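Suppose you are handed only two things: the residues of a chain and a line of SMILES describing nicotinamide-adenine-dinucleotide. What would the bound structure be? This form records exactly that question and the answer produced for it, so the two can be stored side by side and reused later without any lookup.

QUESTION INPUTS
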Amino acid sequence: MSHKIAMLGTGLIGRFYTMSLLKYRGKEQVVVAYSRRAEQAEKFAAEFGIPRWTTDMAEAIRDPEVDTVVIGLPNYLHKQAALLAAEAGKAVLCTKPLATNADEALEMLEAVEKAGVFHGYLEDLVYTPKTLKALESARKGALGKVLWARSRETHGGPHSDWFWTKEQSGGGAIVDMGCHCIEIARNFIGKENRPIEVTCWADTQVHPIDAEDHAVGLVRYDNGAIGQFEVSWTFRGGMDLRDEIAGTEGTVWLNHWLRTGFEMFTAVGQGGYVAEKAEGDTGWLFPVGDEIGSLGYVEMFLDMFNAMDEGRQPMETFYDGYVVNAIIDACYKSAQTKKWEPVELKVWRGGEGRDLGAALKDYDEEHYLIKEERMPNGNLKVILKNKKTGAITQIIRE
Ligand SMILES: NC(=O)c1ccc[n+]([C@@H]2O[C@H](COP(=O)([O-])OP(=O)(O)OC[C@H]3O[C@@H](n4cnc5c(N)ncnc54)[C@H](O)[C@@H]3O)[C@@H](O)[C@H]2O)c1
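ANSWER OUTPUT
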């Protein structure tokens, strides 16, 4: 089926989304673009061959030809747009973060579910080709039980005034980029596992703003796994997007932006854009061959529209966006109290109390195996724990 889209927002993400939709799945049509300013809306519509444009958000959503609303607006407008879309009975796809806080996110979730409209959370970074393949390996058991999922997104700060204005964004680097890292970790750890509590450090190290421009947080899940996020608007050198996943049987390291295998030196530059958040265009550069593919937008929209056509849920829904917002709320609290804070989920749809404790490996009837290691002299060291006495001993095999 071919869908007719209202694109709300013609900024950075409106552009990436429109490019992805028109270039790849190929079936969809953006029939109306909404932007705050007429001049920008008109220019955007002309550039992408979009038949109509407007500066009235409700008009774009209610456009009779539109069946799907894509929200690419500043965070504080997501709720208003989603509620209008639900009211109009349109499918709604919303960019990250779903909302500025969990209360708003829950209101959005309830609205789309009550209206019975299709809803998708546009968390592109779980859809990068590398991440999808790594997630498949994790689901097939290649990593064993995932114990630690560490995800980083750092750059020198966002590109528009509203991101820096707490009332419009809901916060700083945590709500802007922690949302990606938290959802990447949830996908690897398993969404059925409940996030229990968080601890978070956040500070404003560089910029003259009220919100945090740097933060590190830990999210503890009820199966014992830990998600770690590292986000910054103070990082120099481009955009660093990296994930490290460690399980009982394996490890994955992913580098999505600064080391993708494309490195270039130029003494004179190319007079313009190199890659998102690149800081310059001379010297050693790290261009990205296919930006929208590498950031996951292509696979994300394939999943969204294929799910819509097949009558199933996409991989990421408003419910996921709500859980992420709830974790972020707890992080803001913890950054203030400097204590572990519980993740308050008024709606939880996963499992409960799944902690199975340490995975004990039998060595023989009397011992558990702690570790085996081949030493530089060729010996094999076997470290054991006596099941009854608890004593730890080692055997050396020559
Ligand atoms: N990787 C990603 O998924 C990703 C990347 C960038 C941005 N985003 C999200 O997309 C949304 C928009 O971000 P962006 O980077 O496109 O922003 P932007 O500033 O580049 O564009 C904002 C758009 O919203 C419109 N707008 C309407 N009312 C506005 C208002 N009151 N103030 C400012 N703009 C207004 C502007 O006209 C513009 O078209 C945000 O929620 C952001 O978090 C997601």
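WHAT STANDS OUT: The chain has three domains: 4-123, 126-342, 367-397. DSSP finds eleven helices and 18 strands in the chain.
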